[in-house]
Amino acid sequence: MVSLIQVRDLLALRGRMEAAQISHTLQTPQPMIDAMLSQLEMMGKAMRIQEEPDGCLSGSCKSCPEGKACLREWWALR
Question: What 8-state DSSP symbol labels residue 78?
């Protein structure tokens, strides 16, 4: 079982990561990683970084077949 400390240490080593990358690296289900990251955010230890939609070529994410899949969400330590 993965602990909050392991998630925090991984973020410290790698700088910033997506939740899916953390889940894959620690071999832990994504919902559990999401919950741990939310807990670290509430404790003030981690922060969520969302990409700006300016990278979208068409500028119309609502009509994009991928939805908002192009908007990535990163996690990093404070």
Answer: -
Q: H-type helices in 1-78, by residue range?
A: 4-14, 19-26, 30-42
Q: Which domain holds residue 9?
A: 4-77
Alpha carbon distance, N-terminus to C-terminus of the chain: 24
Q: What is the pLDDT of residue 69?
A: 61
Q: pTM, whole model, 2 decimals? A: 0.79
Confidence at residue 1, expressed as pLDDT on a 0 to 100 scale: 87
Say whether pLDDT at 60 is over 70: no
* Length of the chain as a residue count: 78
CA dihedral 66, 69, 31, 78 (to 10 degrees): -170
Give the chain's domain count.
1
How far apart are alpha carbons 43 and 30 in whole angstroms? 20
